[in-house]
Amino acid sequence: MVAWLSSGLLLGWSLGANDAANVFGTAVASRMVRFATAARFCAVFVVLGGLVNGPAAMETLGALGQIETLPGAFATAVAPAVIIAAMVRLGIPVSTSQAVVGALIGYRLMMVGSLDTATWRLLWTIILTWAACPVLAATVAFCTYKLTALIFRSLPMPLFALDRWLRFGLIAAGCYGAWALGGNNLANVVGVYARLDLFAPVQFGPWTLSQSRMLATLGGLAIALGAATYSYRVMLTVGRDLMRLDAFSAFIAVFAEAVAVDFFAHSWKIGTFVLPAIPVSITQALIGAVLGIGFARGLHTMKMPVLGLIALGWVLTPLLAALLTAGILPLVLRLG
How far is the C-alpha of 267 from the C-alpha of 121, rounded, in Å? Predict the structure, then answer.
């Protein structure tokens, strides 16, 4: 059991090293929050967010992959874990959600040979959500930047007071971002196991700890470990190399990405259409937020070659994950 779960835990560690870094990356890069402090807060709120909101998005990925065996789940988790770990080593922020969805599609094509109508509909909904997420983050960042700048100009305060409030705001926004990450992206770590019968429910007085909550706890701890041990380099790529962010802009960026990611961690009914909880890329949300700030400040402040490198990683990640899953799946199934 532990061996089959290890790929999901590795994926959680990779996600923590890549994506969880983004909730405090701008704060650390602007030197307003120490990395050790950021890692501790991130660890706590990722686990809490995953326990409360994580199971909803897990169901969405479970429906997309329809994985019924442990070997299949292992192969589908290990492929994106390897891809993401390689990208992190290069310092390139990538989308864990795209990597996992690419692996799930590779699994379905290998096992079934095609995608049915319901799967295509869900896949297109996920893709459209990916496009909407950075747009939403950019919009929130642009509006919040303009509004907050107006408030600060009309209510001047001493520099030491401003510095204290910005530091508090960065920590609060980072904690909210970590909460949103746990609630939304935990599905990327353990969603492949959602349809398997692995753990019996455990009763704690009037509360019942379900399998989905147990998986959420394990996945959250793996994400927290990745954030604490190997996220510093990606923090600097997003918070320093793409665009120099002062503490004020860093606060706006993290707040905007958290709002966007948290929005998609819940299901929404729009008329007769129901938008399910869908794992989105917190990296893309942060890039969208940084773009929104760039529009507010002027695009000349952004480093477009770095943005192009990040965009290339987004395109390659799902394709490589799908191909790697298809390549290792037959071997893993024989071993299982």
Answer: 16
